[in-house]
Amino acid sequence: MKYSLAAALVALAAPLHAQQPNAQASDALLATSESSSSRPPLAAPFGSGELERLLAARPMVSGTLSLDEAVSTALRESPVVRGASEEVEAALGRLNAARAEQRPSLSANTFLSGGSLPNIVESPDLPVARMIMGLPRGGYFDQNLMLMAPLLTGGRLKTLVRQAQARREASQAEMEGQRQEIALLARTAFREVQARRALVEVQQARLRENEEQLRLDRIRAEQGKIPPFFVLRQEAEAASTQQELTNATRDVELSMLQLRTVMGVNPASEFSVPGVLEYQPSADFIARLTGAPSSTATSSTATSSRASANTALPSTPAPTAIAEPDNAGAPTPQAPSPLTSAPDGGSTVPPASTSASAAASRPNAAGLSAGLSALLRVAEHGRPELRAAELRISGAEMETSAISGSYRLQVNAFAMGDVGSSRSGGSFGGVTFGVAASVPLYTGGRRSAAIQTAQAERRRLEHERARIALEIAQGVSAAYLNLNASEQNILAAQAALRSAREDYRVALIRYEAGRSIVVEVLDAQATRVRAESNLVQALFGYNVALDQLLRAVGALDPAMPSTSTLSTSTPSTSTLAVANGTK
């Protein structure tokens, strides 16, 4: 059983908006339930309570779980990884079996017979030396010990050992690929929890604003300053926001359930996911990944200090909060939004990062950009699937050699000891030793047919390697493009959020001055909330793109720290905390 990585990532990285079931779907579900009520019950695949026992056997996790701890738990407890490790163990068993063929074998054979005619009988089929005994007429008993050792096998046994070794190493490489897939799924599920939690905080801030605005509008309506239907519109908006908050809270629980499933732990595990979605420039990340010098590093401490203050992806200041009217009519500031600003008011990603991406996009002689070409070189050495394909081809080549060796001269040494008795000859005992040799002279085409099959299998594996190479190149290119696009999405989301917050601030001032209606304020607030949600999604997509790029080049080492800490030593690689309003 294997996870489908593409399907899982599509499910995890889907837009973070809950989809509500429509009336037609509900009617169809009701109709299905009514029609199925008359059907006979299906046979249970498990015994009574078996599912509960299986789930109870999964480990419980509690406390605070970091990203690295979630990945390590998934790699330790996931049934997918454990199944892959058992395949490696099976490959090791096949290797040991191939080595055992080179050693002597010893068997004990007992014959007890009677009758009126002599005959020839073979000992039972065993995976060791077998005995063929000529039995005389009348009562007969014989106890035999037989020792046999291969002397000359035409290289067949040595080739089979090397083939089993190559297949074992291929299984190990395939298990590494499975581990990286599970690590990617765990990282993506973990980041989805962080993103959905940030969306909950966005809706909570919106609900606080709506409730405060509703309270103040009720006061104004009682004073005759605004028409009563303004209050009704605010009540409807507050109720709608409460629904959005409920759905966002549900989505957090669903993402937590997905994380527990990927980790392979008990569904009843209760743990918290700390941290927030963070950002670091892709140029620094790729430079560290490929070993190239970072183009965003600065040589001056003063310059580095300015970069540290100016290069964070900030959120603009929260709009002036609604205040209860007083004699002076001045608003009182309220709690800020979950998306807070940088200390200096904020700016975008430093131009150095953009220029570095532009420089890395210049094509080389092969038609690939310098950054993409460097990533492909990393993938060439890092992707375990490519190593596994090479080892499978090596094993297929050894299969051809083993077949050829099996049709060469075969020589075994043997030694046998017998004790027994017969009705006609009495008791007897003795030993026999010698050498047995055999060589095929005519096989009817079996040898050439076997070699033809092995060579076709080798060619098939070579084509499979070519397919894997193309898929790796496609995956690296797609991840590279997704990373660049995700970074640009962060810039666009930042710009949209700044504009939306300023628009909301102005709309709120106009409404407080009696120069606009409540709908304008609510529209501006909805636009701001949408911009905040888009920024959360952009940061989620960017972090997932980082992990996907690591997986594409085979550098998603489970022992490595989270990608948010893979920054250079210069302060220019700063982060944007989304969920808790800290930087």
Please describe what this structure looks like.
The chain is of the alpha+beta class. Helices cover 57% and strands 11% of the residues. The chain has helices spanning 5-12, 23-36, 50-56, 67-77, 79-100, 156-222, 228-263, 282-290, 301-310, 351-360, 370-382, 384-406, 446-512, 518-552; strands spanning 62-64, 105-113, 119-122, 132-135, 140-152, 270-272, 410-422, 426-438. Strand 7 (410-422) and strand 8 form a beta hairpin. It is elongated.
Main pleated sheet: 4 strands, antiparallel
Number of beta strands: 8
Order of helices and strands: HHHEHHEEEEHHEHHHHHEEHH
Mean pLDDT: 78
Question: What's the N-to-C terminus distance?
Answer: 42 Å
Class computed from helices, strands and strand pairing: alpha+beta
Question: What is the percent of helical residues?
Answer: 55-70%
- Give the low-confidence spans: 1-15, 17-38, 296-360, 559-583
Task: Count helical runs.
Answer: 14
Give a topology summary.
Layout: H1 5-12, H2 23-36, H3 50-56, E1 62-64, H4 67-77, H5 79-100, E2 105-113, E3 119-122, E4 132-135, E5 140-152, H6 156-222, H7 228-263, E6 270-272, H8 282-290, H9 301-310, H10 351-360, H11 370-382, H12 384-406, E7 410-422, E8 426-438, H13 446-512, H14 518-552
Parallel strand pairs: 1-6
Antiparallel strand pairs: 2-5, 3-4, 5-7, 7-8
Helix pairs in contact: 1-6, 4-6, 5-6, 6-7, 6-12, 6-14, 11-13, 12-13, 13-14
